[in-house]
């Protein structure tokens, strides 16, 4: 082919010609792109030396960058850079940033924390977080509790007492509520009478005759309810027996039962089977004393004081 | 040959360096004035002390860590973000307004790209001399003199760029303290990154790229062009007067005399090229209005200087409108404001400025927020009463510590049971969360589905706010 058919007069080509006139344009990538590429290659090398990079046998090159952190056992550790250590390091920093507030909470008596608006604001926000992480699984977000499962912390009825010291002890050591089953001791009719008596205490319109019989049974040695629930049926906070005279129910869903027979059935069910499920774990091994104190103030503000 | 192959065109035109000649005149003086003022404000403001209760004594400071901006006696919080939005609206409309009246005035006199380019060119002239000397220096081979002069120029540029970046950062902290920390290596990482990148961009934009920023990068310059009307005043060359019927001619021999020149049909332009040499955008204004023109007015100064020296009337290049120049007998140039667009911009500008001033003047000294706690929505107490709980967020924006009284209205007495005392003390610039409980008997519940919280700053009872909230219970849920 003659040179005239080639296109290289106007556009730069790679200089090769195949099949006579088949040529390839020479359009190099822009300089800025090329140099940026070289710089990124150099940056990659810098990364190899800084961070873990190349696998070697069972291990890998660790890089020269190091992170120092204090683990949960209080031991200071220094390792090569890795995201887990980085998380630990940043957690240490966050804990250090919160420490002044926690120290203040630890140093102050309960009542004064609640009266100090700024410290109390910290209690409300940090407490909400701690509560969500540790307590909300049973007591629900916000502390509303769940019928037949976990007590409502926002009302004024406290099985083990709602003062600061009671709440602190509950969180620290946990609780275990127990009521024996009465299926083998009482007849069905007796249980209905007892249920009617208990319902009458919170002003439910039950059969007065039956309730009166239940009253006798309650204070008799046969059922012996008064041993735990007290002669006045108001419960004993020392061992967590429920106050049966108020409108708050935990194990028998009386508020949602629409008719008297349904309410009776709910109460009778508790009498028949007893309770061995009111278990709250101890938190002293999982939470620090300051965290428990902060949670105590937080829970107290949900509805404590009684 | 070459069928189907387009003529290859380079997409990138290599920059032709622009070496400007200095000029004296009214517009140059105005530009110096603007520059001195702008630099005095920008570089000086972080160092201006201000007496303020409790916090830093710096007149203007943007405190990002504490989330508040101090601007003299005004303290802005994130809640005031809409002031910034309004300010940006106002700035935009002001730009439109000014552009439709007098063209790209912002570009030519106030834009920081123009200001910094101006100072960089001034340094260039100071070190390397006037335009011919600079061109000579450019062309000569590398030797000691060239290295020294260019080195000093670029060194000074970098120094100014660095101080520009540094000053920007000083607005975000207490300047004397931050400066010391910066140089002792104790400032935050962000400060170093900001100073470094601003140094680099200032040096590149004002020293190396200059008019290319306006021509290729800046969107404002380009969209201002579409706001020009025939009545808009712009820097213009009076082609009729300048070119005449015979064109431009050098003032040689008898053509020096104005009357003879005009009789022969020659224009007033003597083709000296001074207007081109002074142009920082590198254009010839005699080619008419063009997108690269930033309307800085330096060619007007240049042409007037020449007209004075040859004894012709001034104003061959002047601020004038396209419409006026097209008339057979151009009238004296004046601002045409009687246009619907201009009046519209002015009205919008006035309304928004008024709204901003009103909003700032009537700002409250505290921020409040009342939220009902919805988990759980309501609580039945042991005696059957219903309790609702509320969280009240208070931010004290005033310069002094404040006490607030929280009370209710529209509720039976005794319903408000605060977890704390009814007065709350908040330190200046701080926020607190307060909880309030409302307890109603089952009989009362239906009667009070709604009530008000009243928050009263004790020292300023007139500044009280009323917030209506709901009371939930099983009865009004149905």
TrEMBL record, chain A:
Binds 2 heme C groups per subunit. InterPro entries: CcoP_N, CcoP_N_sf, Cyt_c-like_dom, Cyt_c-like_dom_sf, Cyt_C_IC, Cyt_c_oxidase_cbb3_su3, Cytochrome_c_Oxidase_Subunit. GO terms for cellular component: plasma membrane. Heme c 1 binds at residues 135, 138-139, 280. Coiled coil: none annotated. The chain crosses the membrane at residues 32-50. It holds the Pfam family Cytochrome_CBB3. This is Cbb3-type cytochrome c oxidase subunit. It comes from Sulfuriferula multivorans.
Automatic annotation (TrEMBL), chain B:
Keywords: 4Fe-4S, Electron transport, Iron, Iron-sulfur, Membrane, Metal-binding, Transmembrane, Transmembrane helix, Transport. Signal peptide: none annotated. GO terms for cellular component: plasma membrane. The keyword Cytoplasm does not apply. Residues 260-288 form the 4Fe-4S ferredoxin-type domain. It comes from the Bacteria. GO terms for molecular function: 4 iron, 4 sulfur cluster binding; metal ion binding. PROSITE patterns: 4FE4S_FER_1, 4FE4S_FER_2. The chain crosses the membrane at residues 30-48, 81-102, 156-174, 186-206, 342-361. Coiled coil: none annotated. InterPro entries: 4Fe4S_Fe-S-bd, 4Fe4S_Fe_S_CS, Cyt_c_oxidase_cbb3_FixG, Electron_Trans/Redox, FixG_C, Helical_ferredxn, Ig-like_fold. The keyword Metal-binding applies. PANTHER family: FERREDOXIN-TYPE PROTEIN NAPH. This is Type cbb3 cytochrome oxidase biogenesis protein CcoG. It comes from Sulfuriferula multivorans. The lineage of its organism: Bacteria, Pseudomonadati, Pseudomonadota, Betaproteobacteria, Nitrosomonadales.
